[in-house]
From TrEMBL:
Signal peptide: none annotated. The keyword Ion transport does not apply. One of its GO terms (molecular function) is zinc ion binding. It comes from the Bacteria. It comes from Saccharothrix carnea. Keywords: Metal-binding, Zinc, Zinc-finger. This is Putative Zn finger protein. Residues 120-155 form the SWIM-type domain.
Length: 367
């Protein structure tokens, strides 16, 4: 069996609890994702009763056979793998402090490491909707009791070995160690090999004299130049903070500048709908404007529950777009609702995104 596919024997009967903070965080994500607490309680009982067979862990998925009174079911829980860029940022956080890798090798997950990863935009621990269940049983709940049982036993695996979480996110222990140690080793070797140098003395005081007169070149708008310099500095700060250099996209950059720098709005050839979307929700709102998508079962069930709880009119649904007369809500990949309104046959964004579809449906402020 590959190192990236690991099998764990069945636990058998016994009442257990997640003891580690990362195991409890896993269960919290399960509870936050669930739309019904009853299957969670049943799943906990199934886990304690030893009804989950051998668990197989591989990048992006947990698999197990779960036994029930009437049949046996194949259950899978999907977890999104980290991208190469996210892994690079995470490995960089491990390399920052030697104790991080030592703790992982000692089967501990430092909170400081997880917090630093989150600050760098790396979703190490699952959140709402990150555990995506799939089961051969006829149940409609998300998760069903079989997937809940598998998730409960997975928290016990995580308790004993946080490398299980990293494998689910896409890399095994050897890959993580190989990716983090060279960086830390190179930095340490360079630091200790560098000879100690004396600091230079202060320069002699002197009179610099008057500053030269400066006249901007003809046609140069100094105010606009100042804004562009500030924008470049902000982008550089983001790159330093995240370690991620965004792919060049001139069209989206024009939209961003037109939305955030009013003085440039008339000079840039940017779609006004796209500019308005960016002003109301940034890149995520622009994606909602331009890219319809089909939510999975979990997202659809969560969206329907939120809609029904607000007692809203029955919508016409196409992919992620829920339409009521001349109003439309677009359900984003971030779980928020983006309001739109039909103006002369064109759907325009009309406000900021909301978690509550009722609030989004009544938002008509275009700014």
């Amino acid at each position: 069996m590959s190192d990236r596919v690991k099998g764990f024997p069945a636990f058998g009967k016994g009442v257990r609890r997640a003891r580690s903070w990362w195991g409890r965080a896993w269960l919290q994500a399960l509870e936050d994702t669930s739309l019904d607490q009853a299957p969670l309680r049943q799943g906990r009982k199934y886990a304690h009763a030893g009804l989950v067979g051998t668990i197989t862990v591989s990048p992006g998925r947990l698999d197990a056979t779960v036994y029930d009174t009437e049949d046996t079911y194949r259950t899978t829980v999907h977890v999104t793998e980290l991208t190469d860029g996210e892994w690079n940022r995470f490995l960089g956080q491990i390399a920052v402090k030697a104790g991080h890798l030592a703790a992982l090798l000692d089967r501990e997950m430092p909170r400081e490491l997880a917090d630093a990863a989150a600050d760098a935009g790396v979703p190490l621990l699952p959140g709402i909707g990150d555990l995506d269940p799939e089961c051969t049983c006829p149940g409609w709940e998300l998760p069903c009791r079989h997937a809940a049982a598998l998730c409960h036993q997975a928290s016990w695996l995580l308790d004993a070995d946080p490398w299980v979480l990293l494998l689910l996110r896409g890399r095994d222990q050897d890959e993580v160690v190989a990716g983090s140690r060279p960086t830390a080793g190179v930095l340490a070797t360079a630091a200790y090999a560098e000879p100690v140098r004396d600091l230079p003395g202060d320069p002699p005081p002197g009179d610099l004299g008057p500053l030269p007169e400066f006249e901007p070149a003809p046609g140069l708008d100094v105010d606009v130049l100042r804004l562009l310099v500030a924008d470049a500095a902000a982008k550089a700060r983001d790159v330093l903070a995240t370690g991620h250099w965004p792919a060049p996209d001139d069209r989206r950059d024009h939209i961003r500048l037109a939305a955030t720098v009013p003085a440039l709005r008339d000079r840039l050839d940017a779609d006004p709908r796209a500019v308005r979307a960016w002003r109301q929700g940034g890149l995520a709102a622009l994606d909602v404007l331009e890219q319809p998508w089909t939510p999975g079962r979990t997202d659809t069930a969560r969206a329907r529950a939120a809609w029904d709880s607000g007692e809203l009119p029955e919508p016409t649904v196409w992919r992620n777009r829920w339409t009521v007369h001349d109003r439309q809500l677009r359900y984003g990949r971030d779980g928020r609702w983006y309001p739109y309104r039909d103006t002369d046959g064109t759907w325009w964004p009309t406000g900021i995104p909301h978690r509550d579809p009722t609030a989004a449906l009544t938002d008509t402020d275009p700014d």
